[in-house]
C-alpha cells in the first residue's frame, strides 16, 4: 500500500480535529479535537519516519505522547474546576471577559 | 546480539556545565514540590521564597560566568548541547539572562503580600468559588505556595525555548513553559470566575496553537527528513538547486509546514490574528502572574521565533520565500494597528497593558523583518527593555486596590477611572507608572525610545537579498503615534483629573465590582464597566462617578517596591546612557 495514504489520513484527522476545536461548544469535545490533532501529527511523524528510513519520527511520537498526557492532566483539571463552579462545560458560557 | 548492541552503543556526549543554569532552575522546582510535601505549612512560604529567588539568582550568576567564558574577550564561541538540540550562542545566552532577570523581578512581586497581608492567589485554588470550603480555607489562612515551583518549571521551559536547536526540543519547551502558566492563570484570589475563565481560554487556544506547531513540525520533518533547524535549512537550499528525484509539490510541504510552525509561535507572542487570548488572560490572571507572563513568555517566544525565521525562513526555497515574507508582513501590520487602535478604547488597566503588549509584538516583528544581524540585536535590546518595564508596570497595578464596604482592602482597582488623582495621593508610584508608559510609548530619554529606534533602524536597513522594510516602519510610526495617545491618556488621568470627593483621599467609581472581602462574592457577575453609568452624563470615556468602592494604595512589603525601583532605574539608565547596554548586546550577539 502506498505510504502517502497514511499522510492523507493524517491530514484528514488533523482537519477534523481543528474543525472540532473551532466549531464545537462543549469543552470536553473541544479538548478531544485537540488530542485528535496531536495524534494526527503522530501518524504523520511515523509515516514520514518510514518514508525516510529514519528513526527520528518514531522517537518524536513518544515525546508527543508524553506531552499530550501532561496536557490532558492540566486541561481536565481546568475544565473540571470550571464545571464545578458553573455547572456547565460550554465554551460559550465562559464569556465574562470581553472588551 | 545483545552484546553486539552493547558494543555499538555510543553514549551521548553531554556538556553538563552548559546545562547548569537550567538544572538549577528545574531542580529547585522539583525540590519545591518536595517542600510542599514535607515542610510544615507555616514554614512553607519563606522556604519556597528563598528557594525560588535563590535558584533564579544562582542560575543568573552561572549564566554570567558562562557568557564571559564563551563570549568574553577570550571567548570560545557557541556551545552545542546534545549534538545541537540546544544551541547556546550569544543570542540565547542574552535572552536567557533577560528571562532570569525578569522572572526574578516578577517573583519579587509574587512574594509581596503588601500591607493587606494577603498574596494574590486563592487560599485553595481547587475550592469552588463562593463555597463553604473556600471560606474555611480563607479563615484558616491557607496559602497556595505551589505557585513557586510552578513558576520555576515555567522559567525552565522558557530558558530552553529560545535556545532550541531542533523543532522537537522547541515543542517540548513550549509545553513545559505553557502548562504551568495555564494553571497559574486560574489561581487569582479575587474575581475567581474571571481567573478560571482566563485559564480555560488560555489553555484551549494555547493547546490548539501547539497542535498547529506540531503538525507543522511533522510536515517539515517529512520535507527534510530532519527536525534540526539547520538540517531543514540545508534541505531547502538543496531544493533550491533543483535536486533531482524529488516529487512535485515538495516545496508546498515546506510552505505549509513553516506557516503552521509560525502560527504556533506567533500565538505565543500574541500577534494578530492569534491575539484573541492576550487581553482576556492578562485581565483575568492574578496580576503578579500577568507581569511574569507578559515579560518572560514574550522574551522566550520571540527568541524561538527569531531562530525559526533566521534559520528556516531566510533559507527558504526561493519560490516560497515571498509567500512567507508576505504573510509575516501582513501579520506585523495587523498586529501593530490592532494593538494600538483597540488599546485606545480600553477602560481596564490590565486589558490596556494587554493590547499594549500586542502592539509591542508588532514592533518586534518589524525589527525581525529586517532579516539582518542588526535586527537580532534590536530584538534582544527591545525585549530587555520591554520585559523589565512590563514587570514594573504590573507591579504598580498590584498596589492600587479597592476598599470594601467594611474598610478592608480587596481586589485591584483596575478600572482606569479609579486611577484618577493617583498622582496626588501617591506621587512616586504614579510617576513610576507614567515613566513605564512613556517608555512603552517610545518617548526620548526613556529606554523604550532607544529600543524602538534600533528596531525601526534595522528594518529600514534590511538586506540586499530581502530588501528593506521601510513601508513597515511607516506603519510602525503611525501605530506608535496612536499608542502614545492612550499611554498619555492614563498619565493625564492620574495627574490632572479631579476626584469626586474634595479631600482627594478616595475616589469613587461607578464601575467597581461589589465584592466583599476576599472574593467570597466572586460568583456574582462582574459588572461591565459601562453598564452602570448610563444615566449620568459623563465628559469622557473614562468616568468617575459616585457610589462605588473607594480606592487606596497599599504599602508594599518590599518585593514590589524593589521591582518598581529596579525597573525605573533600568528604564532611565538605558534611556539616558544606552551605550553600555548596546555594547553588551552587541558583544553577545556578534558571534551568534
From TrEMBL, chain A:
Catalyzed reactions per annotation: a quinone + NADH + 5 H(+)(in) = a quinol + NAD(+) + 4 H(+)(out)
Q: Which domain of life is it from?
A: Bacteria
Its transmembrane ranges are 6-23, 28-48, 60-83
Q: What is its EC number?
A: 7.1.1.-
| Family of the protein in this entry | Belongs to the complex I subunit 4L family.
What is the annotated role of this protein in its UniProt record?
Answer: NDH-1 shuttles electrons from NADH, via FMN and iron-sulfur (Fe-S) centers, to quinones in the respiratory chain. The immediate electron acceptor for the enzyme in this species is believed to be a menaquinone. Couples the redox reaction to proton translocation (for every two electrons transferred, four hydrogen ions are translocated across the cytoplasmic membrane), and thus conserves the redox energy in a proton gradient.
Protein name per its UniProtKB record: NADH-quinone oxidoreductase subunit K
Give the organism, scientific name: Sanguibacter suaedae
Q: Which gene encodes it?
A: nuoK
UniProtKB/TrEMBL annotation, chain B:
EC number(s) on file: 7.1.1.-
Record has Magnesium as a keyword: no
The record's keywords, sorted A to Z, are:
Cell membrane, Membrane, NAD, Oxidoreductase, Quinone, Translocase, Transmembrane, Transmembrane helix, Transport
Its principal location? membrane
State where composition is biased (Polar residues): 531-540
Question: Which subcellular locations apply to this protein?
Answer: Cell membrane; Endomembrane system; Membrane
Q: What class of enzyme is it?
A: translocase
Domain NADH:quinone oxidoreductase/Mrp antiporter transmembrane, residue spans: 164-471
UniProt GO cellular component terms: endomembrane system; plasma membrane
Give the catalytic activity. a quinone + NADH + 5 H(+)(in) = a quinol + NAD(+) + 4 H(+)(out)
Q: Which HAMAP family does the record cross-reference, listed alphabetically? A: NDH1_NuoN_1
Q: According to its UniProt record, which protein family does this protein belong to? A: Belongs to the complex I subunit 2 family.
Q: What is this protein called?
A: NADH-quinone oxidoreductase subunit N
Which source organism does the UniProt entry give? Sanguibacter suaedae
Supply the source organism's classification. Answer: Bacteria, Bacillati, Actinomycetota, Actinomycetes, Micrococcales
Amino acid at each position: 500500500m502506498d505510504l502517502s495514504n497514511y499522510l492523507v489520513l493524517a491530514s484528514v484527522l488533523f482537519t477534523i480535529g481543528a474543525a472540532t476545536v473551532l466549531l464545537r461548544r462543549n469543552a470536553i469535545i473541544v479538548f478531544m479535537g485537540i488530542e485528535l490533532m496531536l495524534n494526527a501529527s503522530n501518524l504523520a511523524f511515523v509515516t514520514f519516519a518510514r518514508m525516510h528510513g529514519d528513526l527520528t519520527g518514531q522517537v518524536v511520537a513518544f515525546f508527543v505522547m508524553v506531552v499530550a498526557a501532561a496536557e490532558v492532566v492540566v486541561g481536565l483539571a481546568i475544565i473540571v474546576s470550571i464545571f464545578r463552579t458553573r455547572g456547565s462545560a460550554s465554551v460559550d458560557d465562559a464569556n465574562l471577559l470581553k472588551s | 546480539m545483545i552484546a553486539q548492541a552493547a558494543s555499538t552503543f555510543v553514549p551521548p556526549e553531554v556538556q553538563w556545565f552548559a546545562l547548569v543554569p537550567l538544572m538549577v532552575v528545574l531542580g529547585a522546582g522539583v525540590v519545591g514540590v518536595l517542600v510542599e510535601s514535607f515542610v510544615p505549612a507555616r514554614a512553607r512560604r519563606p522556604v519556597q521564597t528563598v528557594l525560588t529567588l535563590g535558584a533564579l539568582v544562582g542560575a543568573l550568576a552561572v549564566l554570567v560566568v558562562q557568557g564571559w567564558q564563551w563570549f568574553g574577550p577570550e571567548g570560545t564561541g557557541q556551545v552545542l548541547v546534545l549534538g545541537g538540540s540546544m544551541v547556546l550562542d550569544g543570542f540565547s545566552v542574552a535572552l536567557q539572562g533577560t528571562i532570569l532577570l525578569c522572572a526574578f523581578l516578577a517573583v519579587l512581586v509574587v512574594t509581596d503580600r503588601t500591607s493587606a497581608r494577603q498574596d494574590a492567589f486563592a487560599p485553595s485554588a481547587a475550592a469552588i468559588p463562593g463555597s463553604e470550603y473556600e471560606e474555611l480555607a480563607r479563615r484558616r489562612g491557607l496559602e497556595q505556595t505551589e505557585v513557586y515551583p510552578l513558576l520555576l518549571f515555567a522559567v525552565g521551559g522558557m530558558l530552553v525555548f529560545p535556545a532550541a536547536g531542533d523543532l522537537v526540543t522547541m515543542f517540548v519547551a513550549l509545553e513545559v513553559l505553557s502548562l504551568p502558566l495555564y494553571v497559574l492563570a486560574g489561581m487569582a484570589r479575587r474575581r475567581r470566575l474571571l481567573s478560571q475563565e482566563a485559564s480555560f481560554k488560555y489553555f484551549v487556544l494555547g493547546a490548539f496553537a501547539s497542535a498547529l506547531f506540531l503538525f507543522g513540525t511533522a510536515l517539515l520533518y517529512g520535507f527534510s527528513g530532519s527536525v534540526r533547524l539547520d538540517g531543514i535549512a540545508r534541505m531547502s537550499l538543496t531544493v533550491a538547486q533543483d535536486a533531482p528525484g524529488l516529487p512535485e509539490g515538495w516545496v508546498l510541504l515546506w510552505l505549509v509546514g513553516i506557516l503552521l510552525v509560525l502560527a504556533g509561535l506567533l500565538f505565543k507572542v500574541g500577534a494578530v490574528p492569534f491575539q484573541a487570548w492576550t487581553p482576556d488572560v492578562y485581565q483575568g490572571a492574578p496580576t503578579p502572574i500577568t507581569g511574569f507572563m507578559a515579560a518572560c513568555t514574550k522574551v522566550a517566544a520571540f527568541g524561538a521565533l527569531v531562530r525559526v525565521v533566521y534559520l528556516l525562513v531566510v533559507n527558504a526555497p526561493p519560490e516560497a520565500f515571498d509567500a512567507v515574507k508576505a504573510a509575516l508582513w501582513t501579520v506585523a501590520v495587523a498586529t501593530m494597528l490592532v494593538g494600538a487602535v483597540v488599546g485606545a478604547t480600553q477602560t481596564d488597566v490590565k486589558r490596556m497593558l494587554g493590547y499594549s503588549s500586542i502592539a509591542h509584538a508588532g514592533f518586534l516583528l518589524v525589527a525581525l523583518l529586517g532579516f539582518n544581524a542588526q535586527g537580532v540585536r534590536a530584538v534582544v535590546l527591545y525585549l530587555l527593555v520591554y520585559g523589565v518595564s512590563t514587570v514594573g508596570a504590573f507591579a504598580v497595578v498590584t498596589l492600587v486596590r479597592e476598599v470594601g464596604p467594611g474598610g478592608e482592602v480587596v481586589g485591584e482597582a483596575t478600572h482606569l477611572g479609579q486611577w484618577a488623582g493617583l498622582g496626588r495621593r501617591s506621587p512616586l508610584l504614579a510617576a513610576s507608572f507614567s515613566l513605564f508608559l512613556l517608555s512603552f510609548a517610545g518617548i526620548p530619554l526613556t529606554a523604550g525610545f532607544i529600543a524602538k529606534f534600533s528596531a525601526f533602524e534595522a528594518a529600514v536597513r534590511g538586506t540586499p537579498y530581502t530588501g528593506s522594510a521601510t513601508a513597515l516602519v511607516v506603519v510602525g510610526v503611525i501605530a506608535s503615534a496612536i499608542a502614545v495617545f492612550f499611554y498619555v491618556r492614563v498619565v493625564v488621568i492620574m495627574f490632572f483629573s479631579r476626584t469626586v470627593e474634595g479631600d482627594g483621599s478616595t475616589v469613587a467609581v461607578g464601575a467597581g465590582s461589589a465584592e466583599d472581602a476576599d472574593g467570597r462574592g466572586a460568583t456574582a457577575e462582574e459588572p461591565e464597566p459601562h453598564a452602570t453609568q448610563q444615566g449620568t452624563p459623563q465628559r469622557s470615556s473614562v468616568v468617575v462617578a459616585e457610589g462605588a468602592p473607594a480606592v487606596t494604595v497599599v504599602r508594599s512589603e518590599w518585593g514590589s517596591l524593589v521591582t518598581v525601583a529596579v525597573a525605573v532605574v533600568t528604564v532611565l539608565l538605558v534611556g539616558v546612557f544606552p551605550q553600555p547596554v548596546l555594547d553588551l548586546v552587541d558583544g553577545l550577539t556578534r558571534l551568534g
